[in-house]
Design goal:
The protein is of the alpha/beta class. The chain has 2 domains: 167 residues, 3-Layer(aba) Sandwich (Rossmann fold); 114 residues, 2-Layer Sandwich (Dihydrodipicolinate Reductase, domain 2). The protein contains 11 helices and 14 strands. A hairpin with a 5-residue loop joins strand 9 and strand 10. Helix 1 crosses helix 9. The protein binds NADP nicotinamide-adenine-dinucleotide phosphate. The site of NADP nicotinamide-adenine-dinucleotide phosphate has 26 residues, from helix 1, helix 2 and helix 9.
Length: 302
């Protein structure tokens, strides 16, 4: 299939990373960077010097899709601008629940009127994390979710865990579960060749931690973890009952703008398969997100 030519609208944190990833992509092309009039005169960094910089995506006739990377209050105008010229879009506005539904409805009407597909909420959250939440809920339909954001911010050193043989450095954070239970998350950097499970058991068995539920996560570099601000811990517990007790845990630390950009590019790959209208990230076919690599992905992940 011919590579899809994509415009990046807004050259901020997410937009810059989208542009960077598009330069490296095999099946998507960076067709244009669309900027506010105020920013048009600023030169783009070196790798983007050959890319047309314009104030409207329509000024570059080869553009076939647009990634909207503008602040939320500007998204509808930017969407209108593209969709009315039949350019399909991907956006990632941080909206949830009713606000997300209202936004999607508005874009759906616009997309139907101009007969183009639009992808809404294709970022980290909403986006990839919505997908994981939904998968956990499918696996344990009667359970409940607990999500803690930015665990990195509350981390403190723990002398106790550092005394366990094989632990180079350790950080700890406490959370209150919704039922009031106290939970501890202990992050440990281990000496080479140390059995992580044995270290976890030793930490959990310490009198200091005995009263609380304690989860231990081995990490490569405690110093790097301390620097990171973004993280999420998503836990789903199935209701204990006749069918056993299921429990799922996602622990992640990341650059949110990078993950959002990656999901926006993946969503763009699925645009050619979509009917006119607005589609949420959950509406997209997982295989279509892989674009040209979908056969390989199927072999690897199924
Ligand atoms: N779903 C997720 O998980 C997730 C995570 C992060 C961000 N997002 C979404 O991604 C979008 C971009 O976020 P970002 O962090 O990249 O934002 P940002 O760093 O503030 O960049 C936004 C860019 O939009 C352009 N822009 C156009 N009109 C503007 C205006 N009136 N005021 C300020 N900037 C304007 C500017 O680029 P030019 O100067 O080039 O015009 C600006 O650099 C937002 O809608 C955000 O909600 C989603």
């Amino acid at each position: 299939m011919k590579p899809l030519s994509v415009a990046v609208v807004g050259f901020g944190r997410v937009g810059k990373i989208c542009a960077d990833l598009l330069l490296e992509s095999q099946d998507l092309i960076l067709g244009a960077v669309v900027r506010r009039l105020d920013s048009l005169a600023q030169p783009l960094p070196e790798p983007f010097r050959a890319i047309p910089v314009v104030s409207h995506a329509t000024q570059v006739q080869t553009v076939e899709a647009a990634l909207l990377c503008v602040p939320l209050p500007q998204v509808l105008d930017a969407a209108h601008e593209c969709v009315q010229h039949e350019i399909p879009i991907v956006e990632s506005s941080v909206l949830h629940g009713e606000a997300f539904q209202a936004h999607r409805e508005e874009l759906h009407r616009l997309a139907l009127r101009h007969k183009v597909p639009v992808i809404v909420g294709a970022g980290w959250d909403p986006g990839a994390l919505s997908f994981v939440r939904s998968l956990f809920a499918l696996l344990a339909p009667d359970g409940s979710n607990e999500t803690s954001h930015r665990v990195g911010v509350n981390l403190h050193h723990t002398a106790m865990a550092r005394q366990v043989a094989g632990v180079k450095e350790a950080l700890c954070t406490e959370q209150r579960a919704t039922d009031g239970r106290r939970q501890r998350y202990v992050y440990v950097e281990l000496e080479q060749g140390i059995d992580a499970e044995r270290v976890s058991e030793a930490i959990r068995a310490d009198p200091l931690f005995l009263g609380d539920e304690t989860l231990v996560f081995p990490v490569e570099d405690i110093a790097a973890l301390e620097q990171e601000g973004r993280g999420v811990l998503l836990e789903r517990r199935g209701t204990p009952g006749r069918l056993g007790h299921q429990q799922f845990l996602l622990e992640a630390r990341f650059d949110e703008a990078l993950l959002t950009a990656q999901m926006m590019l993946a969503a763009a790959r699925s645009l050619p398969y979509l009917k006119p209208g607005a589609h949420s990230f959950l509406d997209l076919r997982l295989s279509a997100l892989w674009g040209e690599q979908r056969k390989q992905a199927e072999r690897e992940w199924l």
